[in-house]
Design goal:
464 residues; seven-stranded mixed beta sheet; globular
Length: 464
Amino acid sequence: MNPLPRRLLNLSAVAALTATAVLTGIHAAQAADTLISQGRPTLASSSENGGAPAAAAVDGNLTTRWGSAWSDPQWLRVDLGGTATISQVKLTWEAAYAKAFQIQTSPDGNNWTNVYSTTTATGGTQTLPVTGSGRYVRMYGTQRGTGYGYSLYEFQVYGTLTSAPPTSGPGYVMADPPVTGVVPSTATPPDTNPPTTHHEFQMNCSVSRSNLNDDPIVFPGLPGASHSHTFMGNTTTNAGTTYASLKNGSTSCITPGDKTGYWMPTLLNGDTAVQPVGRQVIYYKSGVIDYRSVRPFPAGLRYLVGSPTATIDDFRNHPGAVEGFECGDLSFNWDIPASCAPGTQLNVRFQAPSCWNGLHLDTPDHKSHMAYPVLGVCPASHPVAVPMIEFKMAWPVSGNMANVHFSSGRGFSFHYDVFNAFDGPTLAALVRHCINGGLQCDPRGFDLYKPERGAALNQNYELP
């Protein structure tokens, strides 16, 4: 629920606020300063709702905002991508502002140094000259100015990158050819009759390999180096997997053209591994409002979703943490429930990023080449809209769940990897027919509710 002033603060008011700031002597950054935070990865202590994500505070758009939970303290952090000398921080507050807060810098995201502190702020637009350095900058709020949360339209950091992030070298896999010149679509598709409510298709894949301590993305060429994984899709995935080996492999997916390798940490009940039974659902959806702009994955794209070292707050506030864990009537759990009704299954739903930078098939952290949309639009740094994968997994475990965990740790350590080896023409046909076409498709590319639209694949789940 938003405070009344928030509802009344429309675009005209935002413009007036900006104009007032200029007239009262709050100036833009000096010419020598460079805005180095826009579009960079962000993390927050909490998010008020799905319409106020952390990333909205660095998108350069004064109509979007980050909003926190209604408690103290709260923080918003931006990763500049490399070490920077920081000269100025500009905060554009919504009606819910911080009365007391610090601006802090850090080299590693763990150890913080104050470069600015106040206990008497009044909101509005604040341009703060600071002196500091670090890769990470955060606003750390200790006292709210209203009964609501902290709410920032923009969090802008100015300065100079002294150790810019590399774009090539070890760990970078370049796309050949790269995709350049793409402008993220801000269009809203027109209304249709009947209405378009979905833009997706399913892959139905069973476990192909289990209890294997391999991870060809994080630990390539190092068998046994990772925690145990459960593999789906490609039946040959191991530590030595390459795009070529996946293409030459077979698949446990019902659609033979999907030779992608999918894997996740093994679920354990005590010391006993629990595997999903039967075919699981892996959705390919549009993660952006303009579903017509979604393109197929490039061959060999690979990435990691989530983190084995995540905290419960990381998982709860993750932009892809859809519904978390559920069983029976329980839902929206950010850790595995303590108990599940006998005979039910443990389920998890978790969404992947769906915006690609167009340049890299992989990066050293296996994440930086991908990004989540900000309120349905890809950021300029990652302008290429690709399918948004959503894992929907189910494990046959119920009753007392005290000893149920993943090989990577607690429930909130759940993560998964994707190594695309989908047959190019097959994937393109499904994306075009189902995602771009606004349908809710099964693995054949058939929409049960709109049968007159036909299917993308034949009865054998292959191109006609």
